[in-house]
Amino acid sequence: MRRLSLFGATGSVGQSTLDLVRRDGEAWRVSVLTANSDVGELVRLALEFRPELVVIADEARYGELKEALAGTNIGVAAGAEALIAAAKHPTDLVMAAIVGTAGLAPTMAALEAGVDVALANKEALVSSGELMTAAARKSGATILPVDSEHNAIFQCLAGGRIDQVRRIMLTASGGPFRTMSAADMAHVTPAQAVAHPNWSMGAKISVDSATMMNKGLELIEAHHLFPVGLDRIEILVHPQSVIHSLVEYVDCSTLAQLGSPDMRIPISSALAWPQRMATPCAPLDLASIARLDFEAPDETRFPATALCRAAISEGGARPAQLNAANEVAVAAFLAGRISFPAIVDTVRRVIDAAAPAVPASLQDIFSVDAASRAAAQHFVDQLEHV
Ligand code: NAD
Ligand code: MG
């Protein structure tokens, strides 16, 4: 039996993880479950999986949680510090599935403690990739990527050596506006932007997919996870989302990982690694898919990926600035405050206005994050008042 600590148990990745654990109950013991504020769901999961510890991030909900689990032997804690302590609770694998900056500190604590981390939280690598990967190298912890593209690359790298990789091809669906003109994109609504053609995901990541910022953030993630050099990581638009990424070796052999667009496949890969586990996912039916299409990304209509490439080659605080500005801009777009093209424009303005810096700790990252959010808010307010 392997012990699993699940951070962000009530979210989309969290629920998919528990769906797999539930089907393979003999193999797993859940040690820790956490959520932000949904006490009802956390209690339901706690009573089903019987972890040793549950943590609610929102301290105001502590009393409610404590009362609901009174009489059980499940430990209860609340707050940001409790999340960090929970990451050091004895376990075999941490699933880091909290969304946003709140996921950074517990992920770092697990890596520093030498615990293997199945990493879904994108922000950890995007804003503090250098610090996270350095902590993992130091402690010997393995980062098992859960993001589908990075999980695909991780699987393809099992077929060769990283120093013999010629090129990594990170695939992108192109999002719902792949074939739309720039002029038409100026008028798209939040409802149109969140309607992803292949994947069912939260609003923020769906908008990132529509701007291609998601692929840019994934380029940053890939750069930290797979150190082959930024110029060896390319983006390839593949509208069907069947091939989740490819790795080309020096001999011109190219390995690809394919699968239905179901997050339970990469999640299962990270959970079971270096083994594999059965999933209830739909097997690929290539004969009925019949064709796979590919095209080069159009960075004129979708400037986000070039912005991310520039941010990572400059390094330091740039990716953290970009990530924070993007979160604010996406929220403003979803609230109907700014136009779709203004998302990436806002990110660019924040980066252009911010001084370069080299964060040496998560605390430095949090300062950069706060300053970039404030700057983005300022530009959003300006846009709204013209
Ligand atoms: P989600 O919004 O569905 O769930 C987020 C989880 O984090 C919830 O359990 C929530 O309670 C918890 N949480 C939110 N704010 C918190 C806070 N301040 N403190 C503590 N906990 C908090 O998100 P998701 O779709 O499951 O995504 C999780 C992460 O995985 C994100 O970083 C996302 O980018 C990444 N990811 C998701 C997918 C996907 O298909 N859903 C794919 C690739 C990567
Ligand atoms: Mg992805």
Sum up the structure in keywords.
386 residues; four-stranded mixed beta sheet; 11 strands; binds nicotinamide-adenine-dinucleotide
Outline:
With 386 residues, this protein is α/β, with parallel strands linked by helices.
Q: Spans of 5+ residues with little confidence (pLDDT < 50)?
A: none
Radius of gyration using CA atoms only: 21 Å
Ligand catalogue: nicotinamide-adenine-dinucleotide, magnesium ion
Order of helices and strands: EHEHEHEHEHEHEHEHHHHEEEHHHHHH
Main-sheet strand order equals 4-3-2-1-5-6-7
- Coarse shape: globular
The secondary structure category is alpha/beta
> What is the residue-averaged pLDDT?
96
Describe the biggest sheet? 7 strands, parallel
Tell me the number of strands.
11
Helical residue percent?
40-55%
Instruction: Specify the number of helices.
Output: 17
Share of β-strand residues: 15-25%
Oligomer: single chain
* Terminal-residue CA separation: 60 Å
Describe this protein's structure.
The mean pLDDT is 96. This protein has helices spanning 12-23, 39-49, 62-68, 80-87, 104-112, 122-139, 148-157, 182-185, 190-194, 203-211, 213-225, 264-272, 286-289, 304-314, 318-334, 341-353, 362-384; strands at residues 2-7, 28-35, 53-56, 75-78, 93-96, 116-119, 143-145, 165-172, 233-237, 243-249, 254-258. The longest helix is centred in the C-terminal third of the chain and has 23 residues, at 362-384. Helices cover 47% and strands 15% of the residues. It starts with a strand and ends with a helix. α16 (341-353) packs across α17. By secondary structure, it is an alpha/beta fold. The protein has 17 helices and 11 strands. The chain binds nicotinamide-adenine-dinucleotide and magnesium ion (MG). The site of magnesium ion has 4 residues, from α7. The site of nicotinamide-adenine-dinucleotide has 26 residues, from α1 and α6.
